[in-house]
User: Fold this.
Amino acid sequence: MHGDGYGSTIGYPTANLDVDFTQVSIAPGIYAGRAFWDGHEQDAALIIDADRGRVEAHILDFEGDLYGRHLRVEPLQKIRDYQQFSSEADLIAQIGQDIAAIRHFLGYYVHRDH
Assistant:
């Protein structure tokens, strides 16, 4: 679904998914996850916002347009609770920290050879 485009303006574009939270049981928050579409699979930062009824996925290291595509996401690890920020600078700084934590988690626990 189309969002408000805010993520793109601050350097973190997201794909917005309309989710029926009566059919999904997951706590709101920021998650390390994976995104799947058209045979592709990629690491993602997931924002689970049950109050607004949607999931936003910032697909790491991806540039392109996913409008009109079927996107499936898989949350793997909660990074932190969802919260509001008093300034855009604080939000951007936190997103940077979240993505670093997500890369660490996914690199160590998901992509590591066992």
